[in-house]
Amino acid sequence: MADVAQKGDVTTASENLVGKRRAGDSFFLGLSTTAAASIMVILAGVAIFLILKGLPAITANWDTNHDLAGYQNKNWGSFWNYVGPLLWGSLWSSLIALVLGAPVAIGIALFISHYAPRRLAGPLAYVVDLLAAVPSIVFGLWGVIVMRPFLTPLAEFLNQYLGWIPLFRGPVSSTGSTMLAGGVVLAVMILPIVTALTREIFLQTPRLNEEAALALGATRWEMIRLAVFPYARSGMISAILLGLGRALGETMAIALIISPSILFSFAVLTDGYNSQTIAGNIANNFPIATDLQRSALIGTGLMLFVVSLAVNMLARGIIGRSATRSRKAPKIGKRA
User: 234-266 pLDDT, tens per residue?
Assistant: First the structure.
């Protein structure tokens, strides 16, 4: 009888423990589900706000409306004629930043993952990650005070010897308020995100692939070119696209550095012929705009929201495919 009672007590305690675990699981399941749903609600709320606030200017007649007919000293004719150059400026400055910053970021990630001694790799990765914590206004001030005068001799050199290329035609800016300076600062700003993602992708390369390449007589660089880069290609592309999304939304650094105009321009060395970005245009004009002009600015923000969302969705899709391939790849041990 004592054994039966003892077994009954054990069963009751086990059932209570299972009940407590189930209650905890249900609580955390609900908490995580609420958190995930809140992200979707916030994203949908931002999209609805931009659509509702921007729609009056998007559908307005810009030729006859008093607030929009001569907005920013030009008769645009329609919202799309207004947002086109701004969208081009955002894409153009971000492309310059990617061309300048992505190779450097990938090189830093490769050095940390495959070349640097362990004693140096950790602190170096930490320092690079710290760049993400620097406010954009600080980068903007650094660009104004340091990079603009520093890049002026380079701009004069490019114009003198490569001025036959439309990209480097003059006149060269004497103040340094050029798209080149803005692109350099944006390139530094995207370094942390591109470096961090590519570093993790490089570290996930199966050791079997690397050791097989080295066993066949490949040098360190040949091993990286034949084993690491093919495995990490999609991850590198997704990291670059996420860096593009970061550069597209940058506001204050570009607004402080370049001397913009709302036009289509490839010029990177001139002053006053730089294509304005959507974010910079909103920052400069929102405080002094009328209600309908603010609607136009919010409409341009909607266009930037759509482009940024598309870029980030594309990047996440590529990351997802990379993660799937990483799980399927054979692995031996873990990288130290």
Answer: 888 888 988 888 888 777 777 788 877 788 888
| Residue among 278, 333, 307 nearest 86 (CA) | 278
The residue type found at 180 is L
The residues near 44 (Cβ < 8 Å, ≥ 6 apart) are none
Longest distance between any two alpha carbons in the chain, whole Å: 102
Phi, psi of 216 (to 5 degrees): -85, 5
Query: Which residues are CB-contacts of 94 (< 8 A; sequence separation ≥ 6)?
Result: 186, 244, 247, 248
CA 50: distance to chain centroid?
21
pTM of the model: 0.81
User: Which value, to the nearest 10 degrees, does the dihedral of the CA atoms of residues 98, 100, 104, 105 take?
Assistant: -20
326 confidence band (pLDDT: 50, 70, 90):
low
Give 258-313 pLDDT, tens digit per residue: 877 788 888 888 877 777 888 888 888 888 888 899 999 999 999 999 998 888 78
For the chain, list the domains and their CATH numbers. Answer: 60-328 (1.10.3720.10)
pLDDT in the model for residue 328: 59
Residue 11 vs residues 1, 7, 20, 211, 275: alpha-carbon distances, Å:
15, 6, 14, 53, 74
Q: Rounded distance, CA 158 to CA 33, Å? A: 55
Contact assessment for residue 259 and residue 251, using Cβ atoms and an 8 Å cutoff: no
Q: Would you say 197 and 312 are in contact if contact means Cβ atoms under 8 Å apart?
A: no
DSSP state of 275: E
Amino acid letter, 293:
Q
Per-residue burial over 237-271, b = 16 or more CB atoms within 10 Å of its CB, e = otherwise: bbbbbbbbbbbbbbbbbbbbbbbbbbbebebbbbb
Each residue of 5-63: pLDDT tens digit? 454 554 555 555 555 557 777 788 888 888 888 988 998 999 999 999 999 999 988 88
Unique residue bearing structure tokens 């591109």: 194
How far is 178 from 275, CA to CA, in rounded Å?
10
CA-only gyration radius of the chain, Å: 27
